[in-house]
Design brief:
heterodimer; A: mainly alpha; MetI-like fold; 13 helices; globular; B: mainly alpha; 12 helices; 78% helix
Chain lengths: 287, 271
């Protein structure tokens, strides 16, 4: 399409090949989102009266704001847990032979491809009243009555962290693989200890991977409808379930549309914060 | 810093990192193993360890027609969505992969955006659009919705495979008089095929497992497996679901093993 025909650049293909997918996205992705935006800007359910009523309702309602806040907080907690647990996996991956490397990757990869419902179900078995944790603690005589683990913030965070861990670990493995191992040796031979080398050399240089991992994990954790609703139960409400209730049970589409837009903007804001940090750190990483 | 302190520091560092890594790997793998073990219970509850072992819940699965129905629907939708994703995604990847134009970069961001945007919001938006144009929810609307959220995997893996392709191969082929189509069929396609297959595989798995889009775009006549399972779990803790989970885990392990052989999946996702 755009390329000059005379140049006959045989190594690239015309932009025309992207047209079918671009058209598909325009009709079935961009248009629905624009319609969502349009409906959210109306005060009535049929879209006759323009107004910011839906947004005002959300932003002045302590309950709605609480749901948004707890969702964003949940994402931060899950991301932090994933980073603390995922980084050592990526570190270990660089230190073992190729055979163990493949095993580590497959362990990380398998949950990513296993059904989310199955993985969440597993956590119900582990955290339940008769679950593994309670059964073990009781048989050891540490507790008398079962602990409440299911339907708690702790339960949701740990289950989500396990479900999203691959999204954090894979970019970290890639990033750590790109660091020149000589830097590690140089730092040590110049007198820096292992911890100092890790925090001053390895961690800053792996920042692009950390950013990529955090972005994916955060975005996935706050939208993880199934895990949030099954482990969190009825008492804990997060944005995806709130949206679903308003749209499906209450049929309040304009308000559901406004919730969607606010949720979308929140995700975009977080992603762009991460991207900005990534861009700022890039110069540092290249140095 | 004294030598002894250095050694102590090195040991403490390695120990802490290794211990956390092992704990993390156990946390990742344990849930699947737990479900597998519980699925062979002879009892009626999800107690762990099970009081005894049997295949009764797998036998029960044989008669669970609602699950069969949902599984069949999920499979059909996933196959169509994957096919459509490959057709649209590979063509788009060819166009944008080597282009330095701004439009190519913008299209790339557009095609990747379903990965970060909340899929539930898209599901609701798609439902609104379909009801506006008078298209009732059906397998077709499901396939369209799933394709939007699955196509990024195909695009990304194909673009990555194309990036590894030596441009000189294409130039030599052209110099030797091969047409573009011939070069594509005999050189480009065989070299990027593993990337396309890996992308198609991930797209298929994510469609089969999709909840947020299906939630809005299905009805009773097009029940989908993950949603059926979710609703069963909301109501009661059914051990049949454990058996079904067992089947899904084993199928996933088998498929990943095949894909690892065919496409080198693990290297592909870390490079």
């Amino acid at each position: 399409m755009g390329a000059a025909p005379a140049s006959r650049d045989v190594t690239s293909y015309g932009m025309g090949l992207a047209a079918p997918l671009a058209l598909f996205f325009l009709v079935f992705f961009v248009a629905p989102l624009l319609q969502l935006l349009w409906l959210s800007l109306h005060n009535d359910t049929v879209g006759l009266h323009w107004g910011l009523g839906q947004y005002l309702h959300f932003l002045t309602d302590p309950f709605s704001l609480g749901v948004l806040g707890s969702t964003l907080l949940l994402g931060a907690e899950v991301t932090a847990v994933c980073l603390v647990l995922g980084f050592p996996i990526a570190w270990l991956y660089q230190r073992v032979g190729p055979k163990l490397q493949t095993i580590i990757i497959l362990i990380v990869l398998l949950p990513l491809l296993t059904s989310v419902v199955v993985r969440t179900f597993a956590w119900i078995v582990i955290l339940g009243r008769q679950g593994i944790i309670n059964a073990t603690l009781q048989s050891l005589g540490i507790i008398d009555t079962p602990l409440k683990l299911l339907y708690t913030q702790f339960g949701v965070v740990i289950a989500l962290a396990q479900v999203q861990m691959p999204l954090m670990t894979l970019p970290l493995i890639t990033a750590l693989g790109r660091i020149d191992p000589n830097l590690d040796d140089a730092s040590c031979s110049l007198g820096a200890g292992s911890w100092r080398t890790f925090f001053r050399i390895v961690l800053p240089l792996s920042l692009p991977g950390v950013i990529a991992g955090c972005t994916l994990t955060y975005a996935a954790a706050i939208t993880a409808f199934i895990t949030q609703s099954l482990i969190g139960g009825g008492q804990m409400l997060f944005m995806p379930m709130y949206l679903y209730q308003q749209a499906s049970t209450l049929q309040n589409w304009p308000f559901a549309a406004a919730i969607s837009i606010i949720f979308l903007l929140a995700v975009l804001a977080v992603v762009s914060v991460f991207t900005t940090i990534g861009r700022m750190s890039r110069g540092y990483g290249d140095a | 810093m004294s030598g002894r302190k250095r050694i102590w520091e090195a040991i403490s560092f390695e120990l802490v990192m290794t211990v956390i890594a092992v704990i993390a790997l156990v946390i990742i793998i344990a849930p699947s193993l737990v479900v597998l073990i519980v699925s062979f219970t002879s009892g009626f509850s999800l107690r762990f360890p099970p009081p005894g072992y049997s295949l009764r819940w797998y036998a029960e699965l044989w008669n669970a027609w609602q699950l069969h129905f949902a599984a069949k629907n999920s499979l059909i939708v996933a196959l169509w969505a994957t096919g459509l994703s490959v057709a649209l995604g590979v063509a788009a990847a060819l166009a944008i992969s080597r282009s330095r134009m701004l439009s190519a970069r913008l299209l790339d961001s557009l095609f990747m955006s379903p990965l970060v945007l909340p899929a539930l919001a898209f599901g609701l938006a798609a439902l609104m659009l379909f009801s506006l144009v008078g298209l009732p929810v059906s397998p077709l609307t499901l396939v369209i919705g799933h394709t939007v959220v699955c196509v990024p995997y195909v695009v990304r893996n194909t673009v990555a495979a194309l990036a590894q392709l030596e441009p000189t191969l294409l130039e030599s082929s052209a110099v030797l008089g091969a047409s573009r189509l011939y070069t594509f069929r005999r050189i480009v396609l065989p070299l990027i095929r593993p990337g396309i297959i890996a992308g198609a595989f991930i797209a298929f798995m994510s469609s089969f497992d999709n909840v947020p889009v299906s939630l809005f775009l299905r009805d009773a006549a097009t029940d989908m497996l993950p949603i059926r399972m979710w609703q069963d779990l909301e109501g009661k803790l059914d051990v049949t679901i454990a058996a079904l989970s067992g089947v899904l885990i084993i199928a996933t392990v088998a498929l990943v093993a095949v894909m690892e052989r065919v496409t080198g999946l693990s290297r592909r996702l870390t490079n």
